[in-house]
Write a structure and sequence with these properties.
The complex is a heterodimer. By secondary structure, chain A is of the alpha/beta class. Chain A is about 35% helix and about 30% strand. Chain A has helices at about 40-50, 70-75, 90-100, 105-120, 135-150, 165-180, 195-200, 215-225, 240-245, 270-285, 300-305; strands spanning about 5-15, 15-25, 30-35, 55-60, 75-80, 155-160, 185-190, 200-205, 210-215, 230-235, 250-255, 260-265, 290-295. In chain A, helix 3 packs across helix 4. The longest helix of chain A is centred in the middle third of the chain and has 16 residues, at about 165-180. The radius of gyration of chain A is 24 Å and the shape is elongated. Chain B has helices at about 25-35, 40-70, 75-90, 90-125, 130, 140-170, 175-180, 180-210, 215-240, 250-260, 270-300. The longest helix of chain B has about 35 residues, at about 40-70. The two termini of chain B are about 30 Å apart. The chains are: A alpha/beta, B mainly alpha.
Chain lengths: ~300, ~300
């Protein structure tokens, strides 16, 4: 299978503001997470991929097609925007049916697909109510239903889990997994890293409109090994241990934190450091109470890569 | 890794359907959504409906009176003159022109109310993102919204005129109104299309420039009323009635007078000037809409 998304030197700016800068990447089939903080360019990238906006420069191909204003392309994708853009006075089935009719389906077919899509996203209650009366989670489901109702090859979802309760998040995550397993390519964005980590192993990290890293979470972690990682140690004798640690080969810095009760250590080889720490702490009778690697989460990976 | 899904990837198969009138679902949805709110419908359409009914009754009375006079005859000279004057005043085209003048404010209200939020609210909520990720062009988007506004505008402007024409047709002896004055019916359609077209384009243009429906409403009324006011003031200052051409309503009234063959002493300018002014306004508004819809990308 060829790449789902191919971007070459893609840039997009809004007047003086750079939304995306010289982005070159290839996204393969399957579920891919797009991760970055607010303002990283995730939404801009997704809108470019969805053909909503055109690149200011560079070449972008999605499913082998140029996406912008390409009607043949639009039939093959489903887009679930971040914005809460729904007709509040319509009922969910009518809304999804209307959007399907914009896609070119006849009324009966649109109605059938709308009902099926709403059921698939788990929205079976409250269908007689207007969308304006729905909770955030229900509105997210309606948005998702309209995106999958025409069975797209590529589903583009912008921040789908924001505002959902834990149960809603779990259900949505399960739904995306199911879509991925059913052969739908899913491109999903989030600024909450563990959400994406729960969903897929493949991530693209964006920051300030640039590609920061791409690959599996493991790949990114390996990339991380080139950077110093931080370990926070709470102990009885911090100064004594600090003296010993500063002399170790793979320790780049040691800092006393929290009124001198904690040590913050930066090391370039975390595994070697932990092996040595055990021995040194024993020798110094340092009385370690807790040991925490603040780099354990993907958040930390991101922080490191951003610098 | 990525290979997980490679085996079950299903490439797109089947024929892509292309469909004419792609804007129609958008238009129908717009009409349906607007119709959900009953109070504005009742409030905004009651005055045009009353105007249409009253004018229709007058037209009905005119034809009934004519038949009565034709059957019995009138011997009194004074009464004959009064009847002749009444006939002139109650000419169907005069009734239609009069009703159009009476309902112009409400027509603008209807068009502004149902059109002001269409593009403004879409942009504010990001609804265009849902539309433009579908096989819908920018032109389809504009036409969908334009037709939504035009539908309600035509209900307000064309409805009363058609009611009067229908009553006139069935009240006239041997459908003489339809046979002899069909041009009045054509003018009713023509004027309604021009009036609604220009005002709808104006409303959508203003809607595309702002982010809130209330701003668009204020903007549309401000533009129309200000143009009338400036025209009136200039006309008074320069003692030249042609300055009334600045007013949008004045041009519509002049056009109505011309199309229906009626005459109003206050408007003396060549009606083709009004055609030029209203056409230019329409083109300008459509141009603004095209520019702003294109710019939806920027705020997307």
């Amino acid at each position: 299978m060829s790449a789902v998304v191919e971007a070459e030197q893609v840039g997009r700016w809004y007047g003086q503001v750079v939304g995306l800068n010289e982005l070159t990447l290839v996204i393969g089939p399957g579920v891919t997470g797009l991760v970055g903080p607010n303002g990283a360019g995730k939404s801009t990238f997704l809108k470019l991929v969805a053909g909503e906006i055109r690149p200011s420069r560079g070449r972008l191909e999605v499913l082998g097609l140029r996406p912008f204003a390409n009607r043949a392309f639009f039939r093959r994708i489903g887009f679930c925007p971040q914005q809460d853009a729904l007709y509040d006075d319509l009922r969910a089935p009518a809304l999804v049916e209307f959007l399907l009719r914009l896609s070119g389906y006849r009324r009966a077919e649109a109605r059938r697909r709308a009902a099926a899509a709403l059921e698939r996203v788990g929205l079976t209650q409250g269908l007689g109510r207007k969308v304006g009366t729905y909770s955030k989670g229900m509105r997210q489901r309606v948005k998702l239903a309209q995106a999958i109702a025409h069975e797209p090859e590529l589903l583009i979802v912008d921040e789908p889990l924001s505002g959902l309760d834990p149960i809603g998040r779990a259900e949505m995550t399960e739904l995306f997994r199911g879509l991925g397993e059913a052969g739908v390519h899913v491109l999903i964005s989030s600024h909450v890293l563990h959400e994406v980590e729960n969903l897929t192993d493949r991530i693209v990290l964006l920051h300030r409109g640039r590609l920061l890293a791409q690959g599996t979470v493991g790949d990114v972690r390996r990339l991380l090994n080139r950077h110093p990682r931080r370990v926070v140690i709470t102990l009885r004798e911090p100064r004594r241990l600090a003296n010993r640690l500063i002399g170790l080969e793979d320790v780049s810095s040691v800092r006393l934190d929290g009124d001198g009760a904690r040590l913050s250590v930066e090391t370039s080889d975390i595994e070697s450091f932990f092996r040595r720490l055990t021995a040194v702490a024993g020798e110094e009778r340092a009385g370690i109470r807790s040991l925490e690697s603040t780099d354990a989460s993907l958040e930390a990976v991101f922080d490191y890569l951003v610098g | 890794m990525a290979e997980t899904h490679t085996e079950i990837y299903r490439p797109f198969e089947g024929r892509l359907r292309s469909r004419a009138l792609r804007f129609l679902p958008l238009c129908l949805a717009g009409i349906r959504v607007a119709a959900r709110r009953k109070l504005p419908l009742i409030l905004l359409f009651t005055p045009p409906a009353i105007t249409g009914i009253v004018s229709s009754f007058i037209v009905y009375a005119k034809f009934s009176l004519e038949q009565e006079v034709g059957t019995r005859g009138v011997t009194d000279a004074g009464l004959r003159i009064a009847i002749a004057m009444a006939r002139q005043m109650t000419q169907v085209h005069n009734q239609i022109v009069g009703s159009q003048r009476a309902i112009q404010t409400f027509a603008l209200l209807v068009i502004a109310w149902f059109g002001a939020g269409l593009i403004a609210e879409d942009r504010k909520q990001g609804a265009h993102l849902l539309y433009f990720s579908r096989p819908l062009t920018r032109l389809d988007y504009f036409l969908g919204h334009f037709c939504t506004v035009a539908f309600y505008g035509l209900c307000a402007v064309l409805g009363p005129g058609l009611l009067i024409c229908t009553v006139a047709t069935f009240s006239s002896p041997d459908y003489s109104f339809l046979k002899e004055e069909w041009d009045v019916i054509a003018a009713t359609f023509g004027f309604a299309l021009v009036c609604v077209g220009v005002l709808a384009a104006l409303v959508l243009a203003v809607s595309s420039l702002v982010n809130r429906k209330s701003f668009a409403l204020a903007g549309v009324f401000g533009l129309v009323v200000a143009s009338q006011a400036v025209g009136g003031v200039m006309s008074e200052l320069e003692a030249d009635e042609d300055f009334l051409m600045i007013g949008i309503w004045s041009n519509l009234f002049r056009l109505a007078d011309w199309m229906f063959g009626a005459r109003r002493p206050i408007f003396h300018w060549d009606p083709r000037w009004s055609v030029v002014i209203l056409s230019s306004l329409f083109v300008l508004c459509v141009g603004v809409c095209a520019w702003r819809i294109r710019r939806l990308e920027v705020v997307a």
